[in-house]
């Protein structure tokens, strides 16, 4: 019995060896160029998660505008200020949507008769309401940090619909208008958060 077991094992080993000889030369001609791999986590970390940017989804009736270089620079300034404030991508979405509604991302000075009281800058903040001096609120970093300071004071802003969080800070006469910019704001954050 021991002999029969030994012959079986040797027979199997012989087949494996013979198969290896035949397979060896075929495999030697295969393309063995090393494949460059990128870890999946590294790719995903480059772009913010859209589920985090739009936790409630985008509301209906979204608006969008084409942006010029100045407006894109203001988007980047808002994102940089958001990071400086230690806040996340969702805070940047709320900020950009607010600035889209208030100024179309244009750093507006005093508009004369067309001005809403003394509102100025990206967020149409008012010196008379304590947002800062004209020079301060027309500085994109300062005005964003001022807006974010107000946002931080809104209890539970992270879980609110964007328009409610923005309205709580801005106290606009048109509280629902911020919602129409949520998708474009999220797209801009996704595009520029890591640039």
Q: Main beta sheet: strand number and arrangement?
A: none
- How many H/I helical runs? 9
DSSP strand tally? 0
Alpha-carbon distance between the two ends = 73 Å
Which stretches are low in confidence, meaning pLDDT under 50 for 5 or more residues running? Answer: 12-44
Radius of gyration of CA atoms, rounded to a whole number: 29 Å
Tell me the strand percentage band: under 5%
Q: What is the general shape? A: globular
By secondary-structure content and strand pairing, the structural class works out as mainly alpha
Estimated helix fraction: 40-55%
Topology as a string of helices (H) and strands (E): HHHHHHHHH
Average pLDDT rating: 80
Give an overview of the whole structure.
The chain has helices at about 1-30, 40-45, 50-55, 70-85, 90-105, 135, 140-150, 160-170, 180-190. Helix content is about 55%, strand content about 0%. α4 (about 70-85) crosses α5. It has nine helices and no strands. The radius of gyration is 29 Å and the shape is globular. The chain is mainly alpha-helical and about 200 residues long. The model is unreliable at about 10-45 (pLDDT under 50). The relative contact order is 0.15.
